[in-house]
């Protein structure tokens, strides 16, 4: 077989496939919800090292210097009201299973600070974005207004990746900016979302469960059971008995 031939075969199988992914359905309100595979992984990593900042998603955004702290807090509150993930905290149930709970509201309080130099700006932003989050007790995002020595107004922003990654974080930032430009801190300019991240998590878990029961899984379990044969591949030169360091 050639690479081109294999590619043609794959295309043919795809065209013949009748598999259709189910749509993501909105769940009825519950006290808590299952988490996604990514959230489960991030929770485990956080438990291994709660002080780690490797999964913080920081940003430093320029704002109109005339913006008030109250206007920013209103825009952030509107976005948090629209996106449940910004109001989500995590816990392990009695069986040790990770769950997520959506709080009805989250307090949005933005501090304001005057920055006197570039060096101070760097130090402060580093300290702000590396401060640990408590995944059990949210909020898992924070913002701070920085008025600089040269007349700029900056928003220091940080989230934990368990609620939003870099791509979704940019979408949230765009919504905040759009509200600020429209002067709509009350959320009227933002339509309600048809689904939330908790709905995606349930959908993903359903797919994983379905794949676990797929006939191909049993086939490969049968094919790969027992001791696997050693792969005998030719080498350019004889291998030594020890591995070089």
TrEMBL record:
Secretion signal, residue range per the UniProt entry: none
InterPro entries on file: Condensation_dom
A single Gene Ontology CC term: cytosol
Condensation domain mapped to chain residues: 30-236
One Pfam family linked to the record: Condensation
GO BP terms, alphabetized: amino acid activation for nonribosomal peptide biosynthetic process; secondary metabolite biosynthetic process
GO MF terms held by the record: catalytic activity; phosphopantetheine binding
UniProt cross-references to PANTHER family, sorted A to Z: FATTY ACID SYNTHASE, NONRIBOSOMAL PEPTIDE SYNTHETASE
Protein name as it appears in the record: Condensation domain-containing protein
Originating species: Duganella violaceipulchra
